[in-house]
């Protein structure tokens, strides 16, 4: 157990729907990073939050949004889902920043049908 | 642009063979560090090592070792006496901080290692 908890582990939904992925970082970690991993795009950085504030954005679509709550858990919201959004979504957390590496959660596998 | 290159897309070895995964980092920085992560078939991403370029000694952890070669800007990862459980995709990642990702790590496609019995 890495200490980073992601729920749900699997999610199947239809096109056009909206889903929320949840991440609880390791105890004490203030930074949360979201990644998308698909076969064609590889592991893509989406967005980072630090202590409740957005810190950096990567290749995140406008249909996607995220937030980090006061208890430091984070949610990634995916809306108007398309078939191409099917992927593994990872959350990672860090104590001292990305320069010292992350701890990843086990991921949420999203299947859009 | 600074980036890492893992030229080996897929490697297949027989158990007990040694295998080296290559990672080349193009940079003008004189000192830097790189990361290695492992993603086994179960899917989770596991942090293996963060290594500084100025560390001249090889890093060894059990059957794993990492070697910086400044002359070729490479940070190679060697698995000695490979085992089936070593089958995974291995990612080498450059330091964070480029203009696209802020302070996040960027990962390439990785090298897929298959160890067969």
What would your notes on this structure say?
The complex is a heterodimer of chains A (113) and B (117). In chain A, 0% of the residues lie in helices and 53% in strands. Chain A is built from no helices and 11 strands. The model of chain A has no long low-confidence stretch (mean pLDDT 93). In chain A, strand 4 (31-38) and strand 5 (42-50) form a beta hairpin. Chain B is globular. In chain B, strand 8 (64-69) and strand 9 (74-79) form a beta hairpin. The mean pLDDT of chain B is 86. The termini of chain B are far apart. By secondary structure, chain B is mainly beta. Chain A binds chain B through residues 2, 33, 35, 42-43, 45, 48, 55-58, 88, 90, 92, 97-107, 109, and chain B through 33, 35, 37, 43-47, 50, 91, 95-97, 100-110.
Task: Break the fold down into its secondary structure elements and pairings.
The complex is a heterodimer of chains A (113) and B (117).
Chain A lengths: L4 E3 L2 E4 L5 E6 L6 E8 L3 E9 L2 E5 L6 E5 L5 E5 L8 E8 L8 E2 L3 E5 L1
Parallel strand pairs in A: 2-11
Antiparallel strand pairs in A: 1-3, 3-8, 4-5, 4-9, 5-6, 7-8, 9-10, 9-11
Chain B lengths: L2 E3 L4 E5 L4 E3 L2 E3 L6 E7 L6 E7 L6 E3 L2 E6 L4 E6 L8 E6 L17 E6 L1
Parallel strand pairs in B: 2-11
Antiparallel strand pairs in B: 1-4, 3-9, 5-6, 5-10, 7-8, 8-9, 10-11
């Amino acid at each position: 157990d890495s200490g980073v908890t992601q729920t749900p582990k699997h999610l199947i939904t239809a096109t056009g729907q909206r889903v929320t992925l949840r991440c609880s970082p390791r105890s004490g970690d203030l930074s949360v990073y979201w990644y998308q991993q698909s076969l064609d795009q590889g592991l893509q950085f989406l967005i980072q939050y630090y202590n409740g504030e957005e810190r950096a954005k990567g290749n995140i679509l406008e249909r996607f949004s995220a937030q980090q709550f006061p208890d430091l858990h984070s949610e990634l919201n995916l809306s108007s889902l398309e078939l191409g959004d099917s992927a593994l979504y990872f959350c990672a957390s860090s104590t001292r920043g990305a320069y010292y590496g992350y701890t990843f959660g086990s991921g949420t596998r999203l299947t859009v049908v | 642009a600074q980036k890492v290159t893992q030229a080996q897309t897929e490697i297949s070895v027989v158990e007990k063979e040694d295998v080296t995964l290559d990672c080349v980092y193009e940079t003008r920085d004189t000192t830097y560090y790189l990361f290695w992560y492992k993603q086994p078939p179960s899917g989770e991403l596991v942090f293996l090592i963060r290594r500084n370029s100025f560390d001249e000694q090889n890093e060894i952890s059990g059957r794993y070792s990492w070697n910086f070669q400044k002359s070729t800007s490479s940070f190679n990862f060697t698995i000695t006496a490979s085992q089936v459980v070593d089958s995974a995709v291995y990612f080498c990642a450059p330091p964070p901080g480029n203009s696209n990702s802020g302070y996040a790590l960027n990962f390439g496609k990785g090298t897929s290692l298959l160890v067969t019995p």
